[in-house]
Amino acid sequence: MSLPHFSADAWKYVFNTPLESGLRCTILLVAGYPVRCDLQRLAQYEYLLVHSGDVDNGPTSLHPAGPHRAGELLVRRGVIERGLHFMMTRSVICRQLDDNGIRFFAGEWAIPFLDNLQSEYTTAMRERAAWVVTTFASLSDDQLNQFMRSNWSNWGSEFSDDFFLAAHL
User: Fold this and answer.
1) Global confidence as pTM
2) Residue 2 lies in a domain
3) For the chain, what is the domain count?
4) Could you tell me which residues come within 8 angstroms of residue 17 by beta carbon, excluding any fewer than 6 positions away?
5) Distances from the Cα of 32 to the Cα of 72, 80, 105, angstroms
6) Residues spanned by the domain of 102
7) Could you report the per-residue pLDDT of 43-98, keeping only the tens digit for each?
8) Under 8 Å CB-to-CB from 110, ≥6 apart: which residues?
9) pLDDT at 9
């Protein structure tokens, strides 16, 4: 029997999957607790967590700076949503419907779950998440959208307004 994590294509089972995205969102929601975030803010925060080096005076990015990384904001939204739903099935992430729409927050199992992950990568994600929340939580949704929009073209891709328009639909 061969386990997928020992194969040459093991990355297909973990990287850029709902599991990985759900983990990053969990880390972000724990760092920002008790604040609740909508999908738009979580997608922006996840980008900033992974590519923190794109921001002036930000910590080193967790992932390499690919030439089209800004496009991740457009294509990762669905993966993030599936990751949130996966973590909700384990009470790691919860959601609430309020006057502002659907908001997500850290669930009762978020901290016990994260406390059992002790890799250097997990520690680095938690450090970046604390930086993201400290740096951007005070911005309104419109201010964060404007920050992302004004820096988009510097982040390895041509500007596309589709992502920011989705926030207002």
Assistant:
1) 0.83
2) no
3) 1
4) 79, 83
5) 22, 17, 9
6) 14-166
7) 999 999 999 998 999 999 997 776 666 566 667 889 999 999 999 999 999 999 99
8) 26, 29, 30, 33, 92, 93
9) 63
Is the pLDDT at 14 greater than 90? The verdict is no
pLDDT greater than 60 at residue 12: no
Degrees, nearest 5: CA angle 40-43-98: 35
For the chain, how many helices (H) and strands (E)? 8, 2
Residue 8 maps to a domain: no
In a domain, 39, yes or no: yes
How far is residue 78 CA from its own chain's centroid? 12
74 is a domain residue: yes
Tokens of 148: 């992302």
One-letter identity of residue 159: F
